[in-house]
Fold this protein.
Amino acid sequence: MKVTDFLKTSGGYARMKDLRAAGFQTREISDQVAAGLIERVKPGLYRLAGFAEAGEHAGLVDVCRAIPEGVICLVSALDYHGLTTFNPSEVYVAIPHGAKPPRMHQPPIRPFYFRERFYLPGIEKVSTSAGEIRIYGQEKTICDMFRYRRKLGEDLALEGLKEYLQRKDASIPRLLEYAALCQAKTVMLPYLKALVA
């Protein structure tokens, strides 16, 4: 069996330990990477080249596979939910406070260390053609954007809020619940009142 065949049978991804356990040599794996048949996502994690190209959110799946505790957040989540016109060049990922810094080659990531009270609420699991994505829901994402408005820009947070309020599934009570959890209610409320008035 070839390395590429093994990757096809394991959902397009495999860890080095699984490849070795299947009898593949390190040199053989390196040759496949050099030939462009497989890609190194991070040390010890490989993906079949072109496997996730069909999936629009392949980079997000890569990050979720490479960082088991990672959750797609902030600008990347805003983009995923269609709440911004901004296209981030990095994948924004939330990691529990105190966790080891992630090492990834592709795609470029921007980690944010969330304390438990900010990290746990609002995580959703989304199945895509490329694999599963762990991501914060719309309301949590908007509230996180207001929490990080000084670092990421108030304009992005406001754009997300405006877009969200135009949706049929928009829920102001749910939004306020997350605003309280994210300690962003005081900042967000004046904007919310102005937009809903």
